[in-house]
Amino acid sequence: MNEDVSTVSPTLGFIIKTIDFQGYKLNIWDVGGQKTIRSYWRNYFEKTDALIWVVDATDRLRIGECKTELIELLLEERLSGASLLVFLNKTDVPGCMGDDEVQRELELDSISTHKWIIVRCSAITGDNLTEGLAWVVQDARDKLFLY
Fold this sequence. Notes:
Keywords: GTP-binding, Nucleotide-binding. It comes from Lithohypha guttulata. This is ADP-ribosylation factor-like protein 2. By secondary structure, the chain is α/β, with parallel strands linked by helices. It has a domain at about 50-145: Rossmann fold (3-Layer(aba) Sandwich). About 25% of the residues lie in helices and about 25% in strands. It has a three-stranded parallel β-sheet with strand order 3-4-5, with helices on both faces. Strands 1-2 form a two-stranded antiparallel ribbon. It is globular, with a radius of gyration of 15 Å.
């Protein structure tokens, strides 16, 4: 958010950021998705309120792999209370997958253990990034008032 994106590349390893958003401090762990580091993902699950799953809307070839990894993650006990925000990235590219296609391919309707939402976005333009984080914050607020 408000960063130079001209040199952005996929995350290799992980990046930790804290951002102030709507009066809350959000600790964000950006963990890369390469196969070689997926076994380390479990090191980042403690006290997770939300899982933000970024899907490349232009990559139909790997959507099956994306689904398999997501389903496996959602079975993790330490993520049992976490909500799921699916950021559908690169939606500004013509011919990209839409919400319905991604919802179907990821089988999101079968997820009853986590509250979820799809938010179309563009990491390059910043479109809807704020809206996605607003949903995460509101969802966390709603959970606070349940206990």
